Amino acid sequence: MAFLFIKNWGNRMLEMIQRIFPEPVRRIFPELERMGRLEEIRVRVGQPFIFRMGEREYFLDNAGARLTDVQEAACTAQKEDLAQMLLLLSRYSLYAFEEEIRRGYITLEGGHRVGLAGQAVLEAGKVRTLRYINFMNIRVAREKKGCAAGMVPYLYRDGSIYNTLILSPPGMGKTTYLRDAVRLLSNGCAGQKGLRVCVLDERSEIAACHLGIPQNDVGMRTDVMDGCTKAEGMEMVLRSMSPQVIAVDELGGEDDFAAVEKVLYCGSRILGTVHAENMDELERKPALQRWGRNSVFERFVRLKKNMDGSRGFEIYDGSRKRLC
Questions:
Q1: I need a surface site. Which of 10, 162, 175, 264 has the fewest CB within 10 A?
Q2: Residues 7, 202, 139, 95: is their CA dihedral positive or negative?
Q3: pTM score, whole prediction
Q4: What is the Cα 80 distance to its own chain's centre?
């Protein structure tokens, strides 16, 4: 997932997350701003509020006035806190967010995603909704322009790009790299012309559209299909937007893989992400085994954490030969 240095936020960006918390917790945000990097906030009934910054965790102290790294001094989230947060998240209209709740997340303006967990209510074997939502995970999103600048030149091929997969475990920054790669490909870089890119933003995390307008910079030649499933979105943009590149985040379901194959038959290129620790794990995924036999993907970008905690990448070609 993406990483955020709060000191670089504008007041509006800080408010996007701050405003979903109960009043006592909001008071801690000036301290968060001073401390720096924030990646996620965990809220669980009966457990401490946990603020994760890099490899460290902090808690809200019993007085609710400051952060502490002493667990015994932490106050705990109450059922009423999560109930209020859910109302604030849904702008006091849970019904309007029924589909998002069924999927287990609500995306805030700016692309910050709030994961939800509780008791699943099933209907015909599928999740109809969640109730007793007593667990939340606020994953903090950010733009990091230029992070993909060293990667994108390896993707170009004959006026377009190679079909490319970006892989890493959760929380390593796949969406951040994907977003910046889209921006660079759309505007043109490394002496290459800009390409027509369509972003399928199922969770509103890439472009972070608000009222249909991207809040993140995804480039001048980029169109966004927001809030639509990847499979449906691919079919729609192929019919209407004539994309040279289709960008998708977190490929995983069988429907996703079938839709990707249709895109390739229609002449567009795919720039996607997938959860995988390394190339060996990637090759164990059934659909990717099939694609491997057919040489569907020709570039693989593996994100990794360097010794100093920064992010880096390795690039492989279609035969799994490392290029950098």
A1: 10
A2: positive
A3: 0.79
A4: 28
